[in-house]
Write a structure and sequence with these properties.
Blueprint lengths: L20 H20 L6 H12 L3 E2 H8 L3 H13 L3 E5 L7 E5 L1 H22 L4 H16 L31 H9 L1
Length: about 190
Amino acid sequence: MAKTKGDTKGGEHGGVLARSPSHLLHRVLQLALDIYAEESGSGGITQRQYAVLAAVAENEGVTQTGLVRATGIDRSTLADMVARMITKGHLERQRSDQDARANTVSLTPAGAAVLEESRPKVAMADARILALLKPSKREGFLELLADMAVSDVHAEPEAKGKKPKAAKVEKAGHGKKDKKPKKEKAAKKAA
């Protein structure tokens, strides 16, 4: 069987998955996390813990809401992570001077030491990930990732205040719009 442009190396995952951004990003994330785990070793911190420590180091006294924005980690997961990192002695939390309802987060000396110990390992993981690409594609790849990371899927559409039309959902292999069952349509008309 001839390989098409959409086929991946080895041809084992061609077709729909080879053209699915969500699937490909998931596969790349798995690969990146595996590389990160190899470089950090069994006693190292996770990639997300590193992201929290690095974000706090760059924004000492940041609120947990600010950490959510900086890391992209959802609020409840981040709150659990911060609580565990406080227990480990890596972070400390206190009430914000500007907003009594908010908590600020700071690095402890132990947290700063863990961050500094992790930096070269993370740099090695990043270098290994980028080495998977041709040198001429690396900068563009990072720019695309950065653009995607800061985009807001919930932002208002720019075009004249109109909401974008939803993409047509196709039935697998049929190329037709997914339609609601007739009973559901009838029930809507009756209501």
